UniProtKB/TrEMBL annotation:
<keyword id="KW-0342">GTP-binding</keyword>
<dbReference type="Pfam" id="PF00503">
    <property type="entry name" value="G-alpha"/>
</dbReference>
<dbReference type="GO" id="GO:0007188">
    <property type="term" value="P:adenylate cyclase-modulating G protein-coupled receptor signaling pathway"/>
</dbReference>
<keyword id="KW-0547">Nucleotide-binding</keyword>
<dbReference type="GO" id="GO:0031752">
    <property type="term" value="F:D5 dopamine receptor binding"/>
</dbReference>
<protein>
    <submittedName>
        <fullName>Uncharacterized protein</fullName>
    </submittedName>
</protein>
<dbReference type="GO" id="GO:0031526">
    <property type="term" value="C:brush border membrane"/>
</dbReference>
<feature type="binding site">
    <location>
        <position position="52"/>
    </location>
    <ligand>
        <name>Mg(2+)</name>
    </ligand>
</feature>
<keyword id="KW-0479">Metal-binding</keyword>
<dbReference type="InterPro" id="IPR027417">
    <property type="entry name" value="P-loop_NTPase"/>
</dbReference>
<feature type="binding site">
    <location>
        <position position="323"/>
    </location>
    <ligand>
        <name>GTP</name>
    </ligand>
</feature>
<dbReference type="GO" id="GO:0005834">
    <property type="term" value="C:heterotrimeric G-protein complex"/>
</dbReference>
<dbReference type="GO" id="GO:0007266">
    <property type="term" value="P:Rho protein signal transduction"/>
</dbReference>
<keyword id="KW-0460">Magnesium</keyword>
<dbReference type="InterPro" id="IPR001019">
    <property type="entry name" value="Gprotein_alpha_su"/>
</dbReference>
<feature type="binding site">
    <location>
        <begin position="266"/>
        <end position="269"/>
    </location>
    <ligand>
        <name>GTP</name>
    </ligand>
</feature>
<dbReference type="InterPro" id="IPR011025">
    <property type="entry name" value="GproteinA_insert"/>
</dbReference>
Length: 351
């Protein structure tokens, strides 16, 4: 019997039966002996869709705060995000031929064009950038380059950090949890691939992976979609199209045949803003509905993924999320637990 099946089948034994009591005793014994490894759930999704942020939130809502060493590493990542982000804006402003509003900002731009990538990023070494970021971010030339960011590779969190540069630029700055959720570079090298959590007193483990060895036959599969990326093209393929293609690929994978998918339509905050400035029909001409109405765009996204799932009997659950918003994430995760239980019930034909 698979680990998941063994564990989950116990949810359906009559509450006060001898079998259930016995089962609990056995479970307790096995747990004590650490013989039950946690049920594994896989997590995948599109590029920059929010996978790492999702894992960070899972860790935070499960009460595991980051320790001081980790916070310092996040601080370094945030400095790095800011410097890299501003450097991109400076270069793109030049490429696009957008004039600076304030010519005094030229010297600040030079700082980003000539920065040393090997320096240790600490509050002291970051100081020269604080004034430069502050002044450039207010310049309408840099703002115009930022407005056109869809045309080049750019980290969305840079706006949040630049808006908060006064606080982040303090010598005694330590990132809040909210800052940590917005840090991007960090996710590239920190091990955030394995996050434990509990459902119905059972332990589960969320794994971020590209290969699916060891997957249980009915374990749910989390799939994260960066919704606001519907217009992301530039030098790469459209990210939403990539995400649809990858999803279809996963649905066709024989190993995942019986896995219910839980789709997270992420970056809802950015999507809600973007629909007012960027018409989805430009990239998805098949869209029918009001392109400036969030519900219409959400419905279109859901339908687009539903169409790609292939097998009609496959269970799909979905949620609209903003992974950087802890309150939203907490609510969503409560219903995700219900989804998981429901998918299990359906698997055993109990509903
Ligand atoms: N505003 C906003 N930003 C988000 C949201 N989810 C993620 N981000 C930001 O988007 C950026 C990319 O998120 P990640 O979690 O690193 O995405 P990823 O899928 O792990 O990216 P890769 O590993 O590079 O493919 C980060 O700067 C996050 O802070 C969201 O819901 N809203
Ligand atoms: Mg990542």
């Amino acid at each position: 019997m698979s680990k998941a099946l063994h564990r989950l089948s116990q949810c359906f034994l009559p509450d006060n039966s001898d079998a259930r009591r016995r089962s609990r005793e056995i479970d307790a014994m096995l747990k004590r002996d650490r013989l039950i490894p946690p049920v594994v759930i896989f997590l995948a999704g599109s590029r920059k869709g929010g996978k790492t942020t999702f894992l960070k939130q899972m860790r935070l809502i499960n009460g595991a705060e980051y320790n001081h060493k980790e916070v310092l590493e996040f601080r370094e990542a945030i400095y790095d995000d800011i410097i890299q982000g501003m450097r991109v804006l400076v270069q793109e402003r030049n490429k696009l031929g957008i004039p600076l509003q304030n010519s005094a900002n030229e010297k600040h731009e030079m700082l980003f064009n000539s920065c040393d990538w090997h320096m240790n990023l600490e509050p002291y070494t970051f100081q020269p950038y604080v004034e430069a970021v502050n002044s450039l971010w207010k310049d309408s030339g840099i703002q115009e380059a930022h407005r056109r960011r869809t045309d080049f590779e750019f980290c969305e969190s840079v706006k949040y950090f630049c808006d908060n540069i006064h606080r982040i630029g303090q010598l005694n700055y330590l990132p809040y949890n909210q800052d940590i959720l917005y840090a991007h570079s960090f996710g590239q090298y920190f091990v955030l691939r394995d996050t434990p959590f509990a459902i119905a007193e059972s332990s589960w483990r969320l794994i971020l992976r590209k290969t699916f060895f060891g997957i249980d036959f009915n374990t749910p599969f989390f799939y994260i979609i960066g919704c606001s990326d519907y217009d992301r093209t530039g030098f790469e393929d459209n990210r939403l199209v990539d995400s649809l293609n990858y999803f279809e690929c996963l649905c066709r994978n024989g190993r995942l045949r019986n896995c219910p998918f839980i789709l997270f339509f992420n970056k809802m905050d950015l999507l809600a803003e973007k629909i007012h400035t960027t018409d989805i029909r430009k990239n998805f001409p098949e869209f029918q509905g009001d392109p400036h109405r969030l519900e219409d765009v959400q419905e279109f996204l859901v339908q687009s993924f539903q169409k790609r799932k292939g097998d009609d009997s496959r269970q799909i659950f979905y949620h609209m999320t903003t992974a950087v918003d802890t309150e939203n994430f907490q609510k969503v995760f409560k219903s995700v637990k219900d989804d998981i239980m429901l998918s299990i019930c359906k698997y055993f034909s109990l509903l």
